[in-house]
Amino acid sequence: MIVAFSVAPEGNDESLAPAVARAVRVVRESGLPNETSAMFTTVEGEWDEVMDVVKRATDAAGEGASRVSLTIKADIREGVSDALHGKVDAVERELGNG
Fold first, then answer.
1. What CATH number is associated with residue 13?
2. How many CB atoms lie within 10 A of CB 43?
3. Range(s) of the domain holding residue 21
4. What DSSP letter does each residue of 30-69 carry, written as one string?
5. How many domains are contained in the chain?
6. What would the pLDDT profile of 21-77 be if each residue is shown by its tens digit?
7. What is the pTM for the complete model shown?
8. Both ends of the chain: CA-CA distance in Å?
9. What is the mean pLDDT of residues 77-87?
10. How many of the other CB atoms lie within 10 Å of CB of 58?
């Protein structure tokens, strides 16, 4: 499965960068394939391991906060690997770039 998620503590007037960095660190240390963009972090793996990473990243981002906002989008597809790159490669081929 591939999960794209965005997490941020609520009720904080300061920059979100430190909280987001804590979440991204959890994802990167998980060893699962992942990418981070301006709006989402995407991680690929089996259901249980991906959801565990999302939970731990949410906990890390929410340290010291009384409320956390979490947005998740998932693509659950059996028997597919490296879809994180395969999906983008397919679009690039359609655009004549691959």
1. 3.30.70.930
2. 26
3. 2-94
4. TTS-EEE-SS-EEEES-HHHHHHHHHHHHHHHTTT-S-EE
5. 1
6. 999 999 999 999 999 999 999 999 999 999 999 999 999 999 988 899 999 999 998
7. 0.86
8. 24
9. 82
10. 19
